[in-house]
Write a structure and sequence with these properties.
The protein has 3 helices and 5 strands, in the order αβααββββ. With about 120 residues, the protein is α+β, with helices and mostly antiparallel strands. It is rod-shaped and about 90 Å long.
Amino acid sequence: MQSLKTFSLWFIVALTLSATAGCSSWVYRINIPQGNFLEQTDVDKLRINMTREQVVYVLGQPVAKDAFDKNTWHYSYTFNLGRDSEQRKLLTVKFNNEKLTSISGDYEQPEEFNTPLEQ
């Protein structure tokens, strides 16, 4: 009878430890950057009337193309998700007639954005 109580106690301890192991905040999580890491210098290269190919050359492929609007691309970057030092950046690029018309988001619009590359 004593061995059954000892087994039951060890079983309960093992079950409790395994159940709480996944809930611990001391578990190490790897920081994995996700999305398009862009710097302001990359965005500064954008000009009005650039083609889609030129934008891809400067910024790379977007993380998401709007499913409802083929003329909108989203460049998103996330790092340290769910932590105090979380970083998020978003850039939205819009096209009209296959030409770049506007940008918006967490980056400043370049001073020379409204000057087309070809004059």
